[in-house]
Amino acid sequence: MRFNLTMLKKILPLLFVLAVVHSSLAQFTQEDKFGKNRVQYKNFHWRYITTTNFDIYYYDGGYEIAKLAANIAEQEFNRITDLIGHSPFYKTKIFLYNSVIDLRQSNIGVNQQGIEVGGQTNFVRSEIEVAFTGLRHTFKQELTHGIADMFIFDMMYGGNLKEVLQSSYLLNLPEWFMAGAAKYVAEGWNVELDDYMRDMLSNRKFKRPEILTDKEAKLVGQAIWNYVAEEYGSANISNILNLIRIVRNEEVSIQQTLGVSYKSFMEGWKTFYLKQLSTLSDQLTLPSDEAILFKNNKKYDYNKVKFSPDGHYLAYTTNFQGKYKVTLVDLPNNKSKVLLRGGYKVINQKIDNNIPLVEWRANSDLAIFSPKNGKNYLWLVNISKKRVKRKKRHFSDFSQIKEFSISKGGNMIVMVGERRGKSDLYLHDIRGRRTQQITNDGFDYLGPQFLGSTDKIVFSSNRVSDTLKKKEENLKEISSNFNLFVLDRKSPKVLSRLTNTLSRDIKPLPINENEVVFLSDQRGIYQLYKYNLQDSISTQLTNYKLSIQDYDIVGDQIAMVMYKGGKEQIYHMDHIDLNTSNFTNKTYRQQVLDLRYLQTIKRKRALEEQKKKLEEAQKKREEEAQIPKKEEEKTAQAKPQLADDEVDTDNYQFDTFAKEKKQSFLDRYKARLKSTDKDDTPKEVKISRPKPYENQFTVDNFVTSLLIDPLRDWGLLFEVAMTDVMENHKINAGLYGLINLKNSNFYGEYQYLKGRLDYGLRYERYNLERTGEAIAHEYSLNHLQASVSYPFNITSRVTLSPFYASTRFTNTDISQLAQPDQTDHYAGAKAEFTFDNSLVTGTNMLQGTRAKIKVEHYFGLKDSEKGFGNLLVDIRHYQKLHKSIIFATRLSYGQFFGNAEKTYRLGGTSNWMFADMANEEEVNVQSAEENRSDLLFTKFATPLRGFDFNHWSGANYMLLNAELRIPLLKYFYRGTITSNFFRDLQIVGFTDIGSSWTGISPFNKENSLNTDYVNSGNFNIKVSNFKNPFLVGYGAGIRTTMLGYYVKFDVAWGVEDKVRSDAKFYLSLGHDF
């Protein structure tokens, strides 16, 4: 949505109404602002090309990828829109990255990883981010998935402003619904889906789809939508999706579209896959649990397993949410150690599970390919000594290294490298550091291996030709079927084809110079096969119920990665026999796909025959039409000349209406034949010339809220966020206040996030009015701050911020008008460290840790005695206990210091409606001449429930909060919860412990808690007491979403000096503490 004045004039009245009707807490200040980062290791010079339906953005080295994406996107556009029954109104923007490493540097979506404040309206932006996978067939799948996901999201939550608001508040779908639909549209009924369903139905307890998240939700959703297509027809997919925008409930939409109850539908879905499993149960088996090397308890992804040449060691790689490591196992001694760690925890971004890659050079030398700081490195690790030695080598010529292996001598590497949108085979001399390109075409390559000690290389490819050609293959010839080939380096132009199947034959492993073991899904499950190069016969070796993900064989040992119980496990077995053979029936899925393929072939052959007959008939008709006729001799007769008003009665022609020529049957059939053929032949996509990227700002979101300030009471808050397409430039602005702007806030902020360092500029004005009998004071604080941030990774950053601040005190009482304004000026700096690896799992439900440490100092420019500083520490941890129960804790500490130290005020809770203020004289003006500009810097330490605002105050505070958050119905109810109110309903038990004091510590006898001063005539009396330095509050509460806003109701009892107070009630707004 483009931002312009006309639109703003239309939107502002609506936003004002929303602000009056609804209320919530918005983070106007930055005190507890956390959030994630993106780290840029290089500059991206963006350009873009356009097609009919897409704008495709790319950068250096990505033009070929952009052209490929343009063809894929346009050719998939009609299929996707027909299947889901929706086409977006605006052009879709596709941002292409040369690798997943580069994609992680993108700023797009960096602010969409936390909790939205109440009253926030996010606008749907037709944008997709896709990284080139290094393989064209998987890139097509990734791109199609991204397009489908965006189209479905736009279908559900897009449209005009009214539809966006209605969908935001009224449409709440389980994760499987949309995520599964997008996955099915992109991938259909694939091996991964089949494996997951067999594993779920046979190895673990069946879970309700509504409670699943992330990968499980996508796979179950894909399985459900596949069931709809297979049992009820694919046309009903669009019917269900379109109806849900009207009824706003997935159960009702499914029931009304399919004509069956939702319960019967879910039972039918489960039965559909159970029947398929039962037909294979007698033939298929699983490895013994005793063969599991160790239990995978954290859902690690295992990528590679590799034996050392002598079989003494096993190296394997693990990846957990982006953090990876390479582990070495001493098999005889059953000991393990980590050789290499890398990566970082990825939040809401693509994870490259293909890294790191490992291969042995010798019995004590391991080679590892892994990225670091946006670059590809080869690590050479020696494990022969107690202290592991590592050497690294930068591979700058490649965007990605997909797979590699090392020759028996340990000097040559054959690898699949990706450059400029193409993956090809390369040879690299480790000693000479030279790289040679072997192939140069548009096909994909996988799993290259040296064939024994020969000059031959065996690999898997989706190529259709046995001859190596230097040309770019068109999109139609890029197949998802892979076969095995052998390349002889002595005659590299001609390949030897080993397999020729309509399946994926991958991961070849030569066990000698005449036999190659490989994985194939030709029967619907990835099993091990053995190919004999002498007699050209393939033999099936295994009959497992689930697919083998990766494997390695040395001698009579085998290591395999397979799923079991929803987790990948590493199996290790001895004394295997590679001379056995197995035969299994094809899975039901494979039978259906084979039948459809045969029907397609049969239909194409029939069309070709009809086309041939048509051409013969047409040719015969044209020959008949060209038979020469006898020329008749005609005698020319002289025609009389006629006047203008005379008519030639011998040659008169009447006026007639034009009559269209009737098409013959052959002409009509030929046109129909052409229309049938055009779906199989991709049209040439018109692509514009590349254009440079220009910054174009759009409105990202609006916030309209009610904010309750302890000093200024209630006020309306308006905030708007704008950003450019790449989200490298951000503009935020906000206004808080009522009709009386004497109690108000305004801020404007600009952020530049394009480079390695992030820059910011922020201006804020804070206005405060204090009135009383014969008192009318106005205070203002102007604060201008520049900032520079250095993100270490996605979760942590450090920020330095120089600033300038000024305060003004105006006495507006009539009797004091002659008094001049009093101003103070400050210059200062702030240093801040922020850490945030939390994951939002639901409304007010987080997992992980957040922390912030901040120190700032104000130097008085007019009067150095007015300088002061502040230290703030805020640490929060969210621990999952069981299912969706969260135990949340927070420890915070603050300290003012310096000549003019300010005050923390302890008690109450944030955004407290109908709040009470203790010790009001401390925040009120006592006389007309008194300057209370210090109130502009005072801070309220919350929550400490059981007490009023400002119950205690001092230059220091310490606060510990603990909450047990139980989503009531979500935890106990097994059905679908469609209401926001009931789905987000939580009961909370809490305890708050805090103290505020001035002095060395809360236990010191001389601090403000234990010392009182009494003025009695000519005497000043100092009274020391020994009260408990901590206030304790405890109680319970309820939280839920009402009208789109998060409301909290708490009842608490306060304990002071072992005396419990009466119950106190709190109605407040906002998330978390």
Explain what this protein looks like in three dimensions.
By secondary structure, the protein is an alpha+beta fold. Among the domains are: about 175-280, no CATH class; about 290-510, 7 Propeller (Methylamine Dehydrogenase, Chain H), CATH 2.130.10; about 790-800 and about 810-1070, Porin (Beta Barrel), CATH 2.40.160. It is about 20% helix and about 40% strand. It contains 15 helices and 53 strands. The strands form ten sheets. The chain has a 20-stranded antiparallel β-sheet that branches. Strand 18 and strand 19 form a beta hairpin. Helix 2 crosses helix 4, helix 6 packs across helix 8 and helix 7 packs across helix 8 (about 215-230). The chain is elongated and about 120 Å long. The model is unreliable at about 1-25, about 115-120, about 630-640, about 650-665 and about 670-680 (pLDDT under 50).
List descriptors.
single chain, 1073 residues, alpha+beta, Methylamine Dehydrogenase, Chain H, Porin, 53 strands
**Rg calc:** 36 Å
In the CATH scheme, what's the topology name of the domain at 788-798 and 810-1069? Porin
Mean pLDDT, to the nearest integer, reads 83
- Counting copies of identical and different chains, the oligomeric state is single chain
Q: What is the structural class?
A: alpha+beta
**What is the number of helices?**
15
How far is it from the N-terminal to the C-terminal residue, by CA? 34 Å
CATH architecture of the domain at 788-798 and 810-1069: Beta Barrel
Please write the CATH class name of the domain at 788-798 and 810-1069: Mainly Beta
Outline the biggest β-sheet. Answer: 20 strands, antiparallel
Bulk shape: elongated
CATH superfamily caption of the domain at 788-798 and 810-1069: membrane protein fhac: a member of the omp85/tpsb transporter family
Instruction: Give the proportion of residues in helices.
Output: 10-25%
Give the low-pLDDT segments: 1-27, 113-121, 629-638, 652-666, 668-679
Number of strands: 53
- Quote the beta fraction: 35-45%
